[in-house]
Amino acid sequence: MKKSILVLFFCTLFSFAQETTLTDFVAEKNVITKIILLRHAEKEKDGSKDPKLSKQGMLRAEKLNFMLSDFSIDKLFSTAYIRTQKTLGAISQSRNITISNYEARDKNFAEQLVRNEMGKTIIVAGHSNTIPALVNVLIKEDKYKDLSEEEYGKLWILTFSNEELIDCSLFNF
Predict the structure, then answer these.
(1) Which of 27, 33, 29, 30 is nearest to 116 (CA)?
(2) Cα–Cα distance measured from residue 155 to residue 32, given in angstroms and rounded to the nearest whole number
(3) For the whole model, what pTM was predicted?
């Protein structure tokens, strides 16, 4: 009798351990999200509020497309300005991805970005004062300051596992 109770106990324990392991496995599934953030490329100095990209800016946009050619890009976000739209233009055209507009000062954009775009690789183009601020919100740290007017070649790649930041890398291009 003692032997059969012991066998029953171990069978139940083994069955419970298997269920727990399966549940834990499903709960621990890693969903990787990559968010690439950058300021628009060089703009024309024509005195207008919404200038186009300069020749140097168009070259930088092409360079960006080439640099990211090995990335599988799912979505593009840009402010409604010509310079940010054109910065992502080469990527948009080469991959047939529509650029979605976002409001740079929207305080909920960062949270919605991580939650709504889980499992994707996205690019966000903004401005010298909005991209570093957005990076700071996403990394939950006041680390990056506004970029100078002459600084166009910084690119942040943030990697999230589920909704948790696991890497923030800064590159110059």
Answers:
(1) 33
(2) 19
(3) 0.83
Render pLDDT for 108-164 as a digit per residue (tens, 0 to 9): 999 999 999 999 999 999 999 999 999 999 999 999 999 999 999 999 999 999 999
Residue 133 phi, psi (nearest 5): -65, -40
Amino acid at 73: I
